[in-house]
Automatic annotation (TrEMBL):
It is an enzyme of class 3 (hydrolase). This is Guanine deaminase. It comes from Gemella haemolysans ATCC 10379. Keywords: Hydrolase, Metal-binding, Zinc. InterPro entries: Amidohydro-rel, Guanine_deaminase, Metal-dep_hydrolase_composite, Metal_Hydrolase, Metallo-dep_hydrolases. The gene is guaD. It comes from the Bacteria. Pfam families: Amidohydro_1. The lineage of its organism: Bacteria, Bacillati, Bacillota, Bacilli, Bacillales. GO terms for cellular component: cytosol.
């Protein structure tokens, strides 16, 4: 493995839930194929020797006083909904889908419209430090393949799904798969096309089997998608127990909970990432854990459409893997920084309760507070664990994806007036106060893919 780049930088990461590590001016050796082959810390014996050996070379990069964070990993986002981000957020889920979302998604039969929106969205995510993303496309193969191509070209690692919604009774005539057979054939064709495309993409582009959610799919479609997942060992994404309406609808149709239904059809594997999960109970959580499936927390979207707050701490304690998603446009923000903050804030409301007519002692759901470092873990390490890829931390053998933060950017200078600030204070300020202005460079698979001047 040839060493291609030698990077000297300070960095934060969270190898363990709730804990953070800071390294000042460490040296990262990055191989030709974008993998961290060695990290030399300041206190290591050979640190000075490595520095003097490499610091004059053209492949030596010194980030000086800037700080690296792992690239953020957004594992639930609807790319076609970007045009309506921030709109229609006072609606209820099923009405929102039928009256705003499906009419918008139907427009992606037009490949030119898709190209324009998707290019803008992927650039926006990169600008906000998101180096890996798992996308819902639409029912259209061509437009969704175009999304995969755009990610490939712009350098983002992506996981992309053609959406399946074949049930005639649940989906409008103007926007649904023509038949179950066609939905499955198109999904298989999509998997093959993305796998072909991925051959020339160093950072990886992966197909994802994507039943929209149980209510939009026939039993037969769910069964056949489960078979495809097995045949191709593919990633799977869907929505699971998101809201009262959605969860109760599935209970009524099957006499079973979402988790049980998804599991019965072979859709809960170690490569499954299910959005929301707000109403999963402890038996459901055991099924997730046993199958090594992950829940993707979408805190901003949940505040509008979910009727509940995900009990992150309780599920983590039960051993579940949880990652983070923007869920555009159920969530309005393309930034995982915003979703980190919202994870913390909504967990406080869950913890303390919000109904002032109740006594404080019985108002909340205690032990629910999620710290900003725990939320940072969900956006980085938790994402890598959900994907079963070596992503989200700075470690030998891990993929070298990061964002470069400048806390002194003139357009958003972070306050730094206290004496002897601890390193953990710096990370808190970065997570709470920085904007995309502070993200000066983005690197994926050991390569700079974005630089702001
Ligand atoms: N359930 C089914 N489709 C959707 C969607 O597009 N957004 C959200 N938040 N929930 C869904
Ligand atoms: Fe969603």
């Amino acid at each position: 493995m040839k060493t291609k780049k030698i990077i000297r930088a300070s960095f934060f990461h969270s190898p363990k839930y709730g804990e953070i590590e800071f390294q000042k001016h460490a040296v990262l050796l990055v191989s030709d194929d974008g993998i961290i082959s060695e990290i030399i810390r300041k206190e290591d014996e050979n640190y000075q020797q490595i520095l003097s050996q490499h610091s004059q070379k053209s492949n030596f990069i010194d980030f000086k006083d800037k700080v690296l964070l792992p690239g953020f990993i957004d594992l639930h986002i609807h790319a076609p909904q970007w045009p309506q981000a921030g709109l229609a957020l006072d609606d209820e889920l099923s009405h929102w889908l039928n009256n705003f979302t499906f009419p918008l998604e139907s427009k992606y039969a037009d490949i030119n419209y898709a190209r324009e929106v998707y290019t803008d969205l992927v650039k926006t995510l990169l600008t906000n430090g998101t180096t890996s993303a798992m996308y819902f496309g639409t029912i259209h193969n061509e437009a969704t393949l175009e999304l995969a191509r755009i990610c490939a070209n712009l350098g983002q690692r992506s996981f992309v799904g053609k959406v399946v919604m074949d049930d005639e009774t649940m989906n409008p005539d103007f926007y649904r798969d023509n038949s179950t057979k066609e939905a499955i054939e198109n999904t298989e064709k999509f998997i093959n096309d993305v796998q072909k495309l991925s051959k020339d993409v160093p950072q990886g582009i992966y197909p994802v089997i994507t039943p929209r959610f149980v209510p939009s799919c026939t039993d037969n479609a769910l069964l056949e998608l489960g078979k495809l997942a097995k045949k191709y060992n593919c990633y799977i994404q869907s929505h699971c127990s998101e809201s009262d309406w959605e969860h109760d609808f599935v209970l009524e149709r099957f006499g079973k909970r979402d988790t049980e239904v998804l599991n019965q059809f072979g859709l809960l594997t170690d490569k499954s990432i299910m959005a929301h999960g707000n109403f999963i109970n402890s038996e459901d959580a055991d099924i997730f854990k046993k199958n090594k499936s992950s829940v993707c927390h979408c805190p901003i979207s949940n505040s509008y459409f979910a009727n509940a707050v995900l009990p992150v701490n309780k599920l983590k304690k039960q051993g579940l893997n949880i990652c983070l998603g923007t869920d555009i446009s159920g969530g309005f923000s393309p930034s995982l920084y915003d979703n980190i903050k919202h994870t913390v804030m909504t967990s406080r409301m869950l913890n303390d309760g919000v109904d002032n007519r109740l006594e404080a002692s019985c108002r909340g759901n205690h032990d629910s507070k999620v710290s900003v470092f725990e939320a940072f873990y969900l956006a980085t390490t938790g994402g890598g664990e959900a994907l079963k890829l070596p992503l989200g931390i700075f470690k030998e053998g891990y993929i070298c994806d990061f964002q470069v933060i400048d806390i002194n950017t003139p357009t958003n200078k972070l306050p730094n007036y206290l004496d002897n600030e601890e390193h953990k204070h710096l990370l808190q300020k970065i997570l709470y106060l920085s904007t995309s202005e502070n993200i000066r460079e983005v690197w994926v698979q050991g390569k700079q893919i974005l630089k702001k001047d």
